[in-house]
Amino acid sequence: MSVLRLTAATALLALGAASAAPAQDALSPDLVRFKGLYKELVETNTTLSSGSCTLAAERMAARLKAAGYPDSDIQIIAPKDRPKDGNLIAVLHGKDPKAKPLLLLAHIDVVEAKREDWERDPFTLIEEGDYFYARGASDDKAMAAIFTDSMVRYREEGFKPRRDIKLALTCGEETADTFNGVDFLLKTHPEALAAGMALNEGAGGRLDETGKPQFLGIQAGEKIYQDYTLEITNPGGHSSRPYKDNAIVRLSKALTNIGGYDFPIAINPSVRANFEGVAKLESPEVAAALTAILADPGDAAAEAIVTKDRGRNSMMRTTCVPTMVTAGHAPNALPQRATANVNCRILPGNDPRQVLKDLERIAADPGIKITLAAEPSAVAVTPPLTPQVLQPALKVAGEIWPGVPVIPTMTTGATDGRYTTAAGIPTDGLSGIFGDPDGNGTHGLNERLRVKSLYDGRRFLYEVVKIYANQK
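RESULT FIELD:
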């Protein structure tokens, strides 16, 4: 039996009911301060188009300096030709200089957000009902704010861990084809991220439809991120004299083919461990379907049930979807060019260049040129979920959410962990932040995070980091 399967079984031991969130009109002073830090970070625009990660990094650095960190333990590193793409590195020194540091990794850049499309201003943190709303409220400024707040608290209380704790708030995770801060730092300032282990985004908790915690995820692998460019050109002409060979029409047909195609199901050990775990928590119908598809990935009836959950559908197959289209040059002219971006999340162990060939076959139009939008990232081997990784998570989760299991999961997106793991830094996705089944609007409209989830995640990460930092 693999390490993953053994530790997955261990992780499924019962852990308990969720702790109550503090009343919003009776927050403790430290929560009031944390909420202010979170608000400041969220309201600092860090989009690629008009924002500045450097400004966000400077504001978080000011918080650390106010807590007593000397200038020598804080750096903001940005490429000379990209001054707004700054990355914050800060260190809390430990007692054993021979112990490899623990790296707290979170990205502070966010996906674009158009104000006219949102119900609320995406760059104003709004607390409404049980939720915080804003771009980055969840991805990934919640974790970045918690890590920064924890570093402040550790310094103020005089915590002296066995090993150094490094904080890395990085830029460009959402736009890695343009710039990625982790990749940049590993190539130009490798000492800034050098560590024996890293904690990163990649797995949170899942709530049911009523807001009750179902399970806490811990990352056991992630899919490969790859963009592809589709392009077709045409002589064009006057729109009053159309012909059938229209660039927009042909590209549309190809995108329809891609959008309607399902890649084959392939159950890897990470997905198997996850499905086995969540089957114990689901309705009899869903549990039976999960069990059936593990036994026979070709079971169409089981697939129809399992794929109703978009996250699970993505976990068990490569997915490719059109995300951007640009076409035409004038409203009264036939299009001379039509291009599209197709974003693929590829199962580990598959070659993005083979997926390109698959897209050529699926598009079924040899006149459309398909290319890699960027060179594939390094493919990292998933670090095993060892007892040293699992036991601290189990301990702290059991105290905060008794009876709630910890279950390995494969991240269907892609994180900066693909760079750190490939560089020899074992990186585990573990946030303690629980989300709704619909994904909380991440990367979409009206992104949100439950207030209770943020505060519980703060408690979880603060405590679990202490344990990791003191391990032998």
